[in-house]
Amino acid sequence: MTFAEVLLPVPIQGTFTYSVPPAMAAGAKVGHRVVVPFGRKKFYTGIVTALTPFPPEGYEVKDIAFTLDDEPVVRHPQIKFWNWIADYYLCTPGEVYKAAVPAGLRLESETFIELHPDYDPALAPPLSEREEVALDKIIGAAKKLTLDQLRTATGFQSIATVVNGLIAKGAVTIAERVIEKYRPRRESYVALTASKSDRDALHAAFDAVKGAPKQEKALLALIDLSEIMHCDTDEVREVSRTELLERSGVTVPILQAMARKGIIRLYIKEINRFRYTGLPVAPLPVLSEAQSAARDAVVASMTSNSVTLLHGVTSSGKTEIYIHLIDLMLRQGRQALYLVPEIALTTQLTSRLQRVFGDKVVIYHSRFTDNERVDVWKRLLTSREPLVVLGPRSAVFLPFSSLGMVIVDEEHEASYKQQDPAPRYNGRDAAIVLASMHGAKTLLGSATPAVETYYKALTGRYGLVSLTERYDAVPLPEVEIVDMATSRKKGLVDGILSSRLRELVVDAVDDRKQAILFLNRRGYAPVARCKMCGYVPRCSQCDVSLTYHRRIDKLVCHYCGTPYEVPAVCPACQEPAIEVLGYGTERVEDEVTAAFPEMKIARLDFDTTRNKNGYEDIIDNFSAGKSDILVGTQMVTKGLDFDNVKVVGVMNADTIINFPDFRSNERAFNMLEQVSGRAGRRASAGRVLVQTYAPAHPIFSFLAAHDYQGFFNMEITQRQQFGYPPFVRIIYIYLKHRDAADLNKAARIYADRLRGLFGTRVTGPEEPPVGRVQSLYIRRIMLKIEPSASIAKVKQLLRELYVECVNDKTLAGTTLYYDVDPY
Ligand code: ADP
Ligand code: ZN
Fold it and tell me: How far is the CA of 626 from the centre of ligand 1 (A)?
């Protein structure tokens, strides 16, 4: 007897053992999906991760109910990678499996039984009595039945055996809600029946169409399109029916007539929706001297380091260097993974890559439909062709076969870290591990590397290559700091616009250039308040004040999205005195429109990019010069490449630097340096204007000098002094509960147990900056682990504590999870 370890998409540690009925052995190999009974009544689809001849001890194993695949749907190293993620980020492999595999391949509990469309009782083997009963129920049901429903309808406890009999006899198939949606795209193709070397057959074909001018036309077009005159082997180019109809101008019945004569063959082929059919049109970019030196240094570094950091200032042409390295990989017949922090960035890059690599470019992200994602998955699964995959963090989960290199662009970005749900992994760090499992190299790129990354590069754990000049010797933008307090006193501020900023915007637009105004708050005004009594409307489910959105005239909670009517009178004092305060992007857009009535203004934020192409349209229009000023949130800071921006205005830098978190300086410096980097990327210098009430903040002098090293030196000293990464590892423990008192009790109990294990390494519990979201109160405990401690041991203890607490009745109702290496 063989037993299979099956990984299920459930948040329970470990795999589950099932016996493999001998008849199913071929379908239950490692990497195959199987349907298994789980719990009292449910069926789940899981993945076989191992086979053993030894039965588990202590309980009776159940049989696998069905098998689904003839070939594995995952590649072997993937399961190892999932286990690493689960282990490192303290979640279960089942949760990783759920995040990793597109839903179309990951049937969840609802397994449906349906009549096989080709079933013919007259031809099939006779059914047993029970099988008859079950089949009747299936045919007679108003809608498709799940296994559980069929069990109830028939009263057969061993329903899986009965259904298996029906499957074996070709009477039913099992389907699943999700898989039903997955339909491979098919296309019709046409081919000559004669092979090109067979002259006689070709002549016969021409003879056969004599007197039928339309058929002759089609035949000539087919010969032309299949390019049989151009190549030496018998291989010809595949011709789609659409293409042939277009070229020859004939109709489908003509082709069918030719097929009946045996001249041509019509066939249907599954095609991948994401095949880019164009050929590469652009050569590799010619690198500048500095760029080729950097490329060579990266190549050299990769021979001795598994990870290399490319620290290149904004607009130094890191992308061009990546393209060269990808080309090297592809020519070695290997695959490259190119990670970007935001789905949005794939748009600008896709065409840049496709122009050079044509159909070797594969794009993967979560905004694709499930069908589309399954297509990409299958393309990687079934071939070992050299490809470059472009995508956000989830692309690390694809079934790579011969990965040679991973590029993590803008590696400092917080969006590489998944916050919710588990696995709470960092795509950058996971990519490094993935690469090493494949014997591949990792290249991290940034103008403002994460403090941890730069520290590793300086201390020799990573290779370091620096690129200090912009492409084409464009100077870095000049940064001016405007002291808003003084300017306001002098009457030099109108609304949120300082007169200096107005001057620069006007000057840029007069010069036929563009401006970007950056503000990290969306909506119209971040605070509403009663001017009589000071009452501030808050979300009923979250611990935050509401943001006023003028376009919809509502107050909105930015944590849970709930909209509220603006109260006509203050609910506290009944006076009609609710006013709104502060600035969001909507209000800046309004003010800028009023200030510059002759200019065209566009806004880029979460609200203007909700619909499918919103983001692309705004970016494309701005790139094409259809707007003069782009007002936007963080979305404008990230890696975008505009030609014509002369001025970048940071409207309110104070909201960026005052953030209660150990990463606040790092985040602020990165954000400001990156947004500055959008200015003057080509041909001429740009200018950055920062409006702040705290002009003396040290960040600004480093920013003005574009002095990353200076910033890093200050920051690393503070991190060491106060014990923050990279000098310790941080694990946050989050507890959530509907009831504040119960939560406080649970958090105290948990913290005490943690202190029993880890002593003074534990801080808290504390209330995070937003202490309640979607009706759940939140408490956080911080665990700092020094680098010399055994992290494996720490995690083992945390896992045991988790299990202990989940089973502890006094903590019932508390949700608990870990966040390893928070960002
Ligand atoms: P980074 O990613 O370092 O900010 P990019 O790779 O986006 O910079 O390059 C900035 C701009 O300079 C882009 O518009 C790019 O097309 C151009 N550029 C950089 N290197 C070259 C090159 N070798 N040849 C032509 N254009 C280049
Ligand atoms: Zn809310």
Answer: 22
Cross-strand pairs, 581:
527
Helix (H) or strand (E) holding 648: strand 645-650
Q: What angle, rounded to 10 degrees, do the helices at 791-806 and 740-758 form? A: 140
Q: What residues have CB less than 8 Å from 54, skipping those under 6 apart?
A: 3
Q: Would you say 251 and 218 are in contact if contact means Cβ atoms under 8 Å apart?
A: no
Q: How far is the CA of 539 from the centre of ligand 2 (A)?
A: 5
Whether the CB of 95 sits within 6 Å of ligand 1 = no
Helix 213-225 vs helix 199-209: crossing angle, to nearest 10 = 150
| Tens-place pLDDT, residues 99-135 | 998 877 765 545 678 888 778 887 788 899 999 999 9
Q: Is the pLDDT of residue 799 over 50?
A: yes
pTM attached to this predicted model: 0.81
From CA 559, how far away is CA 539, in angstroms rounded? 9
Give the residue among 1, 54, 62 at the shortest CA–CA distance from 36: 62
Residue 397, ligand 1, Cβ within 6 A: no
pLDDT at 177: 43
Q: What is the mean pLDDT of residues 190-212?
A: 86
Residue 284, pLDDT above cutoff 50: yes
> CA torsion sign, 747 to 750 to 756 to 758?
negative
Q: 558 C-alpha vs ligand 2 centroid, how far in Å? A: 7
Name the 3-class secondary structure at 428: helix
Give long-range contacts, CB 8 A cutoff, 24+ apart: 328-332: 328/299, 329/386, 329/388, 329/404, 329/405, 330/357, 330/360, 330/386, 330/387, 330/388, 331/386, 332/386, 332/404
